[in-house]
Amino acid sequence: EVRLVESGGGLVQAGGSLRLSCAVSGIPFDDYVVAWFRQAPGKEREGVSFMSSADGYTSVAASLKGRFTMSSDNAMNTVYLEMKSLKPEDTAVYYCAGRPLGPDEKFYYDYPREAEFGFWGQGTQVAVSS
């Protein structure tokens, strides 16, 4: 059973930092992609960052680059999302998601696309106060 369990959310003041974790288990693929998404109240889910297990390739959405960083432990059993200089507009539920990596897959986008992911965590709430 694929499990993606997020943790680390909470309330933080604007300008502060937070690190989210996603415990990944049961992925039945040799190579896979793990991603972070977020959904703010009243808005569509937005792709934040993704990482490939094949080579550790990582990308962060252009609008968040410089403030958000995705990383993992060596085996990608846990992936992290480091967020700094947080703004009230970063308030959202943050989700971890997974999918298989396609053969010879190339990444043409710098953000993960929701429709490609079939495995999802339950989300963790991040609230940034002004």
Summarize the structure.
This protein is mainly β and 130 residues long. It contains no helices and 11 strands.
Structure commentary:
By secondary structure, this protein is mainly β. It has strands at 3-7, 10-13, 18-25, 32-39, 46-52, 58-60, 68-72, 78-83, 92-100, 119-120, 124-129. Strands 2, 4, 5, 6, 9, 10 and 11 form a seven-stranded mixed beta sheet that branches. Strands 1-3-8-7 form a four-stranded antiparallel beta sheet, with no helix packed on it. Strand 4 (32-39) and strand 5 (46-52) form a beta hairpin. The protein is globular, with a radius of gyration of 14 Å. The protein starts with a strand and ends with a strand. 32% of the residues are buried.
Binned, the helix content reads under 10%
Strand content: over 45%
Number of helical regions: 0
Unreliable runs? none
Q: Averaging pLDDT over every residue, what do you get?
A: 96
Subunit organisation of the chains: single chain
* Rg, nearest Å: 14 Å
Largest sheet: 7 strands, mixed
In whole angstroms, the N-to-C terminal distance is 40 Å
Structural class: mainly beta
- How many strands? 11
Q: How does the overall form come out from the CA principal axes?
A: globular
Helix-strand topology string: EEEEEEEEEEE
